[in-house]
Amino acid sequence: MKKAYTRVDYPTLQAQGEIATLQDKITLHDNINQFVDVREEVTKRYFHIPMRIEGVTILLFCLRGTIDIKLSFKEYQLGANDIFIVESGQLGEFNGMSEDVQFFIIFVQNDFCTPLAQNVNATRVQELMFRGPYNHCSPEDMQEMYNIYKYLLNKISGPYKYKEDII
After folding, report:
1. How many CB atoms lie within 10 A of CB 93?
2. Which pLDDT does position 165 carry in this prediction?
3. What are phi and psi of 75, to 5 degrees?
4. Is the Cβ–Cβ distance between 4 and 50 less than 8 Å?
5. Which residues contact 129 (CB under 8 A, 6 or more apart)?
6. Are residues 18 and 71 in contact, defined by beta-carbon separation less than 8 angstroms?
7. φ/ψ bin of 72: left (φ > 0), alpha (ψ from -120 to 50), beta (otherwise)
């Protein structure tokens, strides 16, 4: 019997292209400094197709434009300064994005993410995860998130010897 959804796991997400990856634990992807026709590529593979996210947590940061997503049968439209978090086991659906969309995504393998989430001293990102999938933040907070993303990107992409220690 055919499943009613497509299974999407860490290797599936990595196969979509990456900017940087750290030993199958964390992958960074964005369309900020390069033109990527993500609308066509994503639309071909995922448009209105139910997906079950497995073994990975996805942190999606929208800087500009709009992204339409359905998660657990609820529809969301992300805009500037919105953060969307999809955790393993959730059912979702991609429903489109605007032509001017600009975003960055962090895929974190659950084997790597779960110990981070159990840390007693919760970080701002960990607090967001417990608030729910959709979070709007101030332009200053989004800039800070983007600065952290660029820092991770620089360290993971570069010759830094202790890459895992930066997380």
Report:
1. 18
2. 63
3. -95, 140
4. yes
5. 57, 85, 87, 117
6. no
7. left
What are the beta bridge partners of residue 82? 62, 136
For residue 38, what is the enclosing H or E element? helix 38-46
Q: How far apart are CA 166 and CA 158, in angstroms?
A: 12
Give the whole-angstrom CA distance, residue 18 versus residue 137. Answer: 25
Contacts of 88 (CB under 8 A, 6+ apart): 53, 54, 55, 56, 57, 110
- ∠ CA(57), CA(62), CA(65), 5° rounding? 145
Q: Which residues are CB-contacts of 81 (< 8 A; sequence separation ≥ 6)?
A: 62, 63, 136, 137, 138, 139, 141, 142
| Structure tokens belonging to residue 148 | 């952290």
Residue 27, C-beta contacts closer than 8 angstroms, at least 6 positions apart? 10, 13, 14, 18, 20, 21, 106, 107
What global pTM score does this model have? 0.79
pLDDT in tens, 44-100: 556 667 788 888 888 999 999 999 999 988 999 999 999 999 888 888 888 888 888
State the Cα–Cα distance between residues 109 and 55, nearest whole angstrom.
6
